[in-house]
# Entry
Amino acid sequence: MKIRVLQKKLFRVQVRAFSLVEVVIALALISFAAIAIMGLLPTGLSTLRDAMNQSRQAQILRTVAGLAAVTKFTSLATNGLYFDSDGIPVSDSANAIFTVNVLTNLPVYPGSTNAAALQNALTALRVQIIWAPAPHAPGRTNWYSLQVANDGK
# Structure
């Protein structure tokens, strides 16, 4: 008798499972979250592309400022500096993603009586960066202002 009671206790297994309603609710919640995440992907990729573009333009501006710091201001105004997709200078427009035009302006010194003597030491640059991701795609144009100092040599 004791053996039968022991066997009943040993083999008494309670099976618990999810009901069909619980499974459907769980799938609905998971699919809702997945659709929301997939909806954010295009916005995230667009933001990433814009951030990369801004980083490359900042690198191009550093290159232009470095060039201006070691070049005579009279020979600095130039059109058609070309850069590839990584912001590295290239020699022609065939491989270029960015086209840079540099305009020089005399800086303004409010209240200074010595402005003429400072013209060789400081200049104001207007830098136009045109970004065209494809050869026949419309480009985006950004303008930047820089003030660069050098010794005029």
The first helix runs from residue 2 to 10.
